[in-house]
Structure prediction request, 351 residues.
Amino acid sequence: MEDTIKFIENENKRKKAVTPPAFGTTFTNYMFEMKYNDQDGWHNATIKPYEAFTIEPSALCFHYGQTIFEGLKVLKTNNKRILFRADANLKRLNDSAKRMCMPEIDVDFVLKALVELIKKEEDNWFYDNIDSYLYIRPFMIASEAIIGARQSKEYIFMIIMSPMSTYFTSDKVKLTTETHYMRVPTNGTGEVKNGGNYGGAFYATANANKNGYNQVLWLDPHEQKYIEEAGMMNVFFIVDNKIITPNTSGSILKGITRDSVINIAPELGYEVEEKKIDIDNLVELYKQGRVSEAFATGTAASIQPLDIINHNGFEMEFIYDENSVSTKVYDYLENIKKGLIKDKFNYIIEF
Prediction:
């Protein structure tokens, strides 16, 4: 592919709002785009004004589900911009591409393009609050104009960015298990970030919302007995002062933040175990006073303590303070992101 990135100036730049907007509602002045076809491979890499673009109604992305995406964040602090595990996100995008029969990207080239894209914003979209980020959404869609149940021969890859602060806006984060609908089958597409995984979850999530819960806590697709993940997040529990989390079994996303928690927890003196977690057994352990915390992890939410988990009408409720395990893990991870402690894992890119 071409090794150059074209740049188109935005003559109508918008200014950021006084305070960070709600998550995912406002977008920065520029985006990155490149295209693919079977003859030329990836080409026409361009940083250009954020704008609507034209695609034919017959484009395969609308009909057969060839869409993948990623999510990551960049922080500006102490006059430096810091990307957290961007290479891991782009490598996972390639894993998604392989599973969905889509072309892989050159990770190094796209990482270079991402850095240039962030620089082009001239820091206009960062807020003074140290916990203000730009959320970054790379995605790929099948763009060939043909109605045929096959993989596309043409694709568009783009990166857009959105200023953000907090992800959840409610006072408490409440989950409820889903015992009828399933998210994805084992060895389906649950391990990749394909749009259909999320669209298929909306109905159960809407039902949960009607009953006062933020998200669904999904159970396994076969026995609906073992915990998988929560909405768009991986989940962890503190049982007898040990951190446990569902093992990735072919239907659970291999979260970047999840992996980070597993890596850094021993630095804080905590043992981590990846295992099947029986929801009924977890409830019994909770009744015995052995389950002290539950938290979810994801790029947008980072480390999110879970206040209430409902299963078959019984609510497990958790209370947190500065000594909570999730608080300590969050602080350690955020301090790596902000460059406040030594990055032993080479997670960050500063520029």
The chain is about 20% helix and 30% strand. The two ends are 25 Å apart (CA to CA). The mean pLDDT is 93. The first strand starts at residue 6 and ends at 7.
